[in-house]
Structure formats: C-alpha cells, structure tokens
Amino acid sequence: MIIKKFIAATAACTLIGNFLPTLSLGNTQYVMTANAYTRGETDEFTYVNMGANIKISMAKSPSGVLNIPSDIGGFPVTDIMMQAFQDQPAITAVNLPDTLTSIDFMAFANCTGLTSVTLPKSLKYLEDGAFMNCFGITTVTIYSRDCQIAGESSIPEEAVIYGYSGSTAETYARSYGRSFIALPDEEAPSAKRYDYQFLTLDDETQTPLKGVTFKLSGVKADGTPITFEENQISLRNEATLIQGSGDSLMWISGTSETMVFLESGTYTLCNEAVPDGYMKEPDNTFTISENPPFFSIMWYRKQPATTLPPPITTTTPKTTSTTSPTTYTTTSTSTTTSTTSTATSTSTTTSTTSTTTTTTTSEPPATTTVTTNVVPPVSRRVGDTSGDGEISPLDASMALVAYAVLSTGGTYEMCGITDENFYIYDVDNNGEISPMDSSLILSFYAYLSTGGIIEDMSVWMNQK
User: Fold this and answer.
1) d(CA 284, CA 199)
2) What is the pLDDT of residues 386-413, one digit of tens each?
3) Is the CB of residue 104 less than 8 Å from the CB of residue 130?
4) In degrees rounded to 5, what are phi and psi of residue 72?
5) How many CB atoms neighbour CB 398 within 10 A?
6) Cβ–Cβ < 8 Å for 65, 93
7) DSSP codes joined into one string, 143-169
8) Would you say 72 and 3 are in contact if contact means Cβ atoms under 8 Å apart?
9) Residue-wise pLDDT tens digits, 45-76
10) Which DSSP category does 228 fall into?
11) Residue 426 and residue 413: Cα distance in Å, rounded?
C-alpha cells in the first residue's frame, strides 16, 4: 500500500485546565488539546496519527475488498471514526485488523455492497448505527466477548449474529430478537483462519437449493492433508452435518449458506449427491490465502426431460371444397354375329351391335386445415432476480450477491446471468450490474408495499 503523508496544522489554540472542550459520541471522546498530530492518506482512506495510534477518518471512494491495515508507520490502527466509510456502496467486503478497538457512529452506514462482516477479538466498542442500512449483510461474526454494542441499529436487523455463549453479542441478539448462533466455546480461531460461506442455488429459480451433499477436503502449502477440528463448520436453516472433523467435512445443504472456518491451503469441494431431478456439478478446487473470497455460489441445473412433451393442441376446422365433381364416361361395345348356310341358298349374316354407357361421378378428397396455437414465452419482470414473479427484498439481495461475485473476479455464468436475463439485474439500464440496481429494486418494493399501482419497474423508473 502506497502511503502518502503530509503534515497538517497543529492544534489551533492552547486551552487551560478545565476549559479544554470535550465532544462525546457514544463511548468515544474527542478532546481538543495543544498537542500536534499528523494527517495522512492511503489510496483508500485518510487517517489521523494521534502520536501513539492511528484513527481512520475518511474514505477516498474505495471499491471491492477494503483492507484496513494493523499499523501505519509502526503505529497501531485502533479506531474507525464516525461516518468514515458512510455511503460507499462499492465496498463489497472489509478486513478488520486485530488491533482495532472502536468502530464509531455510522462508520459503515449505507454500505449496501457488504454481505458479511467479521469483528475482531480486540474490538471494545461498536457504536450506534455502525452498519445501519447495510441491507446486504446476512451474517455478522463477533469474536470479542465483551464488545459494547450501542443501539439497535448497530447491526442490520436481518443479519444472523455469530458469537460466544455468554458474550455481549449474545446479550445484544437476545435483547433485540435477532438470530444468534454460538461459536465453539474456545478461543477465537487464529488469524490464519477465515470465514468461508457456501451457498447452493437452483439455476432456474435462483432460490436456495436444499439437499446437496458436499465433501470438503484440503492440503496445506507443503502438500500435507488438512485436518478439520470439531465445530469448524457452522450449519443453519435445515442443513445437516454428516462428518464434522477428521480429513474431510461432509454436510447436506439447507435453505441458506453454510459457514466454514478455513486455514490457508488448497481445497476441493465434491458433490457426493444431489436432489432428485438435478445434475451433479464438477468438483470445485479453490485456494485460501490472506485475501480469500468470502463465499462460493454453486448453481444446480435440472436434468433434461426424458419423456415426450405433451401433445400440441390443434384444431381441424370443417373445410368446404370448391372443386367441381369430375364425371368419368366408359363405353363398351359387344358384337353378335349369326351365320346360316345351306348348299342351295345364299348365306345371310346379321350382325347386332349393342352399346352400353356407364357414367361415374366422384368427389375429390376432402381438404384438411390444421391450425396450431403456440403461446409465446412470458418474460420475467425487470428487477425480479429471484424469478418468483414478485419484487421483494430477496431480489435486491440477489442483485447484490451478483455484484459481489462479479467485483471479486467472478463470471456472469457463476451468477446465472445470460444475455437473455441481463436486463433483469441491470434495472437502471446502464450496461452494468452495480449496488445502484439493488437500491432501485428496494425503492420499487417500498413503492409497491405502500399501494403503488405501477407494476412495471421500467415504467415506474421513467416516471420518477
């Protein structure tokens, strides 16, 4: 990371004794003193060197994965100041150091591109609104046992909270009716382990697919097999554990993502079995390093039909032929000759000819006209990314997931996006998929939920 430093002005004035002004925000106090401090910047943010520690102060339009370092110039990074990364939808993930002690008021508010957050063991304060309106976040993992979490809006309402039993994270979840899953009752995983999420989706409906059996194994950089420990995998929403330790992990997918804590190495994910009617997908090999992807989406297609389709409905209207009947005439002639002869008389021969005429009239073959009624395919609505025929927050989440996959090097194929359905995701019709598309879907959902009468999102956007 290239760090550019510049010296800022020292404190504007020196105040005496008890007249030093103090500003309090939550559990964080900002005191004006006569001491000098230094400002600096990186490619992604600006910061303040307080003389003994670093505080991150303001974003510089970061995108993709945001990496907050553990130190800058030898000074530990301890704080992310209020509103530092507010309104930065292009951030899709954030890596927080184990030196961080405070995330201040609305530090990541409206970062709609985030899908999961992991808070380090060192964190002591999570201020009110820290992740407010981050609608894409589905999981928040808190390794700190005693972090003070201020206010209901600190963590998105729909996010599942992972933490230790008896921790302040559990207390917060119980107090506000949030979903809570306990981490193993031991020290937090070492820094070399990362949260990795696996999600299975139906390729056609783009909804979670339950019942896929997985086997995960891996090797370290030196080629030795990775041994999995108890409680290294976290299951929820109808997922089933088959093998939770040893040389591999095995589980059956549920109706949401499965989280596994993985150390550095190369892993192979095998499809052991799939639900009836679906096709197995090839094995997936991936590598975990210091900057891993945070999730893997697997799409499953249904097997092609093996029976003939139902017969096409046809109509056979009665047709009147305008062809005139054809008359065929057949004439047959027969001749009878009678001869009488004697020795003394002249022979007389009489010939009688009879003619018989037969007339036959025939109708031509009937003409048959077959009319086939073919119903054209029904197009999906703009914004209906889930394919369920409705506009809902799930559609916005699906659009965010697609953006996250694409912005971290994924392909359109991984997201199930083709030339035919690209318009469903690109709701603002600007030729790309971005967090703005997700935001527009949510706005349209809010419009419909409050009695809006325009059902076509394209028409609604044109009238905005």
Assistant:
1) 13
2) 888 888 888 888 888 888 888 888 888 8
3) yes
4) -130, 120
5) 25
6) yes
7) --SS-EE-SGGGS-TTPEEEE-TTSHH
8) yes
9) 999 998 889 999 999 888 889 999 999 989 99
10) B
11) 15
**Could you give the 3-state DSSP secondary structure of residue 385?**
coil
Q: What is the DSSP letter of 461?
A: H
Sheet of 213-219: strand order equals 240-243, 249-252, 213-219, 265-273, 284-288
Neighbours of 266 (CB within 10 A): 16
CB 257, CB 199: distance < 8 Å: yes
Position 388 scores a pLDDT of 83
Distance of alpha carbon 70 from alpha carbon 75, whole angstroms: 8
Calculate mean pLDDT across residues 417-429.
87
Helix axes 393-407, 435-449, angle to 10 degrees: 180
Closest CA to 401 of 132, 65, 136, 208: 136
Chain position carrying tokens 């009836």: 276
Report DSSP state, residue 188.
P
Helix intervals (H) in 308-434: 393-407, 412-415, 422-425
Residue with tokens 């002249």: 346
The residue length of the chain stands at 464
2 burial class (0-12, 13-18, 19+ CB within 10 angstroms)? exposed
| Amino acid in the structure at residue 239 | A
| Per-residue pLDDT band at 87 (split at 50, 70, 90) | very high
Cα distances from 381 to residues 281, 398, 435, 445, in angstroms, run 29, 14, 19, 13
Rg (C-alpha) for the chain, rounded Å, is: 39
DSSP H or E stretch at residue 458 = helix 457-462
The percent of residues in the chain predicted with pLDDT above 90, rounded, is: 27
Residue whose token pair is 């994924």? 410
Task: Determine the Cα–Cα distance for residues 76 and 91; give it in Å rounded to an integer.
Answer: 23
pTM of the entire predicted model: 0.40
Helix-then-strand count for the chain, H and E: 6, 30
Instruction: Please state, in angstroms and rounded to a whole number, the distance separating the CA atoms of residues 203 and 302.
Output: 8
Q: Are 119 and 126 in contact (CB under 8 A)?
A: yes
Q: Are 202 and 210 in contact (CB under 8 A)?
A: no
